[in-house]
Amino acid sequence: MAGLLSGYSSTIADAASRKRYAEKLELVGRIDPYEVAKGDWQDDVDLWPAITQLQVCMYLILAPNPYSEKDFFNYKAWTATRILCEAG
After folding, report:
1. Count of C-beta atoms within a 10 Å radius of residue 9
2. Is the CB of residue 22 less than 8 Å from the CB of residue 4?
3. Does the pLDDT of residue 2 top 60, yes or no?
4. Is there a contact between 16 and 22 (Cβ–Cβ < 8 Å)?
5. Number of domains in the chain
6. Phi-psi region for residue 2, left (φ > 0), alpha (ψ -120 to 50) or beta?
7. DSSP 8-state assignment for residue 63
């Protein structure tokens, strides 16, 4: 699999992360967004899909990811939380 990947994906050191990235590329026809030329992107909000905040939230919480639910909801360990608490 590693021989098929190029660009950004070849810089991913962790084998498990590289495999996840390759699986995600399969979902979008093996088009690596880091390999798309800047001129090929369209910056038009009207072309964005119509999604709700709830859909985004559900994706971020329910989508498979390398972190467990325990890791995700361990807000006390978040660096940003610690920084805000220390600054207050």
Report:
1. 19
2. yes
3. no
4. no
5. 1
6. alpha
7. S
Domain containing residue 31: 2-87
Calpha distance 34→36 (Å, rounded): 6
Question: Which band of pLDDT confidence, cut at 50, 70 and 90, is reported for residue 1?
Answer: very low
Query: Rounded to an integer, what distance in angstroms lies between the CA atom of residue 65 and that of residue 88?
Result: 32
Q: What is the pLDDT of residue 3?
A: 45
Residue type, 66: P
Q: Are 66 and 20 in contact (CB under 8 A)?
A: yes
> What is the C-alpha separation between 23 and 30, in angstroms, rounded?
9
Run of H or E residues at 72: helix 69-72
